[in-house]
Specification:
This protein is α/β, with parallel strands linked by helices and 174 residues long. It is built from 5 helices and 7 strands; from the N terminus they run E-H-E-H-E-E-H-H-E-E-E-H. Strand 3 and strand 4 form a beta hairpin. Helix 1 crosses helix 2. The termini are far apart.
C-alpha cells in the first residue's frame, strides 16, 4: 500500500534572502535594487512594525521603477497610483493598515484589475491580499521596538509561487 502523497502547496517559497539595513538611505537603495527584479503583475507584501521602513523601501521602489510623484505613505487615502514616466509598469502603493476586513474590503480597491499591468505594493497586507495571486514577494522588516534610535533593520525577503521560483534574490545583498 502506497503512502498518500503529500499535499501540494502551490505557494512554496522560491527563494529567500536575509538582509541587514542600517539606515534609511540603505533601505531606499534596497528598494531601487529590488525594482530591477519587478515587472507588471508582481505583488509585493510588506510587513513590519510602525516605523520599520516599509514606505522608505517603497520610495526606493518608485525611484527604481521610474514612476511619477513622490511616494509617501497612503495611510489616509488607502491607495495611490504612480504612473510610469517611461515604458515600465505603474506602481500601486496600498496601505491596508486601516482596513479591518480581508479580501472583500480590498476588492473595493480593484487591485485584481490593477495587478496584471502594475507592480502592486501592499503595506500591512497579511490576511488581506494573499488571494490575489499565489505569486508574490513577501518582505518582512524587523526593527528594535521601544524607545530607541536604532536604525538597524533585519529583513527577510521571500519569493512565493512559480514567478519567484527561479529568481535569485541573493542579488539584493550585493
Amino acid at each position: 500500500m502506497e503512502a498518500p502523497a503529500a499535499p501540494h502547496n502551490p505557494v512554496e517559497p522560491g527563494s529567500s534572502v536575509q538582509i541587514v539595513v542600517t539606515s534609511p538611505e540603505q533601505m531606499r537603495e534596497l528598494g531601487r535594487r529590488l525594482a530591477k527584479l519587478l515587472r507588471a503583475g508582481d505583488l509585493v507584501m510588506l510587513s513590519g512594525e510602525l516605523g520599520a521602513g516599509k514606505t522608505t523601501l517603497t520610495r526606493g521602489l518608485g525611484e527604481g521603477l521610474g514612476v511619477r510623484g513622490a511616494v509617501t505613505s497612503p495611510t489616509f487615502v488607502i491607495a495611490r497610483v504612480h504612473p510610469s514616466l517611461g515604458d515600465g509598469p505603474p506602481l500601486v502603493h496600498v496601505d491596508a493598515y486601516r482596513l479591518s476586513g480581508g479580501l472583500d474590503e480590498m476588492e473595493d480597491l480593484d487591485l485584481d484589475v490593477s495587478l496584471p499591468e502594475s507592480v502592486v505594493v501592499v503595506e500591512w497586507g497579511e490576511g488581506k491580499v494573499e488571494e490575489l495571486t499565489e505569486d508574490r514577494l513577501q518582505v518582512v522588516i524587523h526593527r528594535a521596538v521601544g524607545d530607541t534610535t536604532d536604525e538597524v533593520r533585519q529583513m527577510t525577503i521571500t519569493g512565493l509561487g512559480e514567478r519567484w521560483s527561479a529568481t535569485d534574490l541573493s542579488v539584493l545583498t550585493a
